[in-house]
Design goal:
- Helix content is 43%, strand content 15%.
- The chain is of the alpha/beta class and 131 residues long.
- It has a single domain, classed as 3-Layer(aba) Sandwich (Oxidized Rhodanese, domain 1).
- It has a five-stranded parallel beta sheet with strand order 1-6-5-2-4, with helices on one face. Strands 3-7 form a two-stranded antiparallel ribbon.
- β5, α5 and β6 form a beta-alpha-beta unit.
- The longest helix is centred in the C-terminal third of the chain and has 14 residues.
- The chain is globular, with a radius of gyration of 14 Å.
Length: 131
């Protein structure tokens, strides 16, 4: 039921959200915009992280989420009054989450299209995940 409600919220917000979608490249990374990796710990261990990315899980392995916990950790690690970017594996989760953050909370969010699979393919700097 919880997933259904959030899914409905994401569908509604996607009709109005203004999110900047961008394929990450070296020029974008040189702008020092914080990148938040919303994947799971298992995914971080599997592929590593984009160098400088901040790991904060949104959806767990079962698709569950806790928006207040995510927002608390996000605001502790990122200045949400300034632009920041989101990345996941392929861009589908960031598409949903960035629209929610932009439309509902007014955050200035970049959605890194293609996700980590694109980043790996472009040979952008990846570092191993360390807890």
């Amino acid at each position: 039921m919880k997933i259904f409600i959030l899914s409905l919220l994401f569908i509604v917000t996607s009709l109005f959200a203004q999110v900047t979608k961008i394929y990450p490249n070296k020029d974008f990374l040189s702008n020092n915009i914080p990148v938040v990796d919303i994947r799971t710990e298992g995914e971080w261990k599997e592929t590593g992280l984009l160098k400088g990315a901040i790991p904060i899980t949104f959806f767990d392995e079962k698709g569950n989420y806790n928006v207040p916990v995510f927002l608390k950790e996000l605001s502790e690690k990122v200045d949400v009054k300034k632009p920041f970017a989101l990345v996941c594996r392929t861009g589908s989760r960031t598409n949903l989450v960035s629209k929610f953050l932009s439309n509902e909370l007014g955050y200035d969010v970049y959605d890194l299209s293609g996700g980590m699979m694109y980043i790996i393919g472009e040979k952008l700097p990846i570092i191993p995940y360390k807890k």
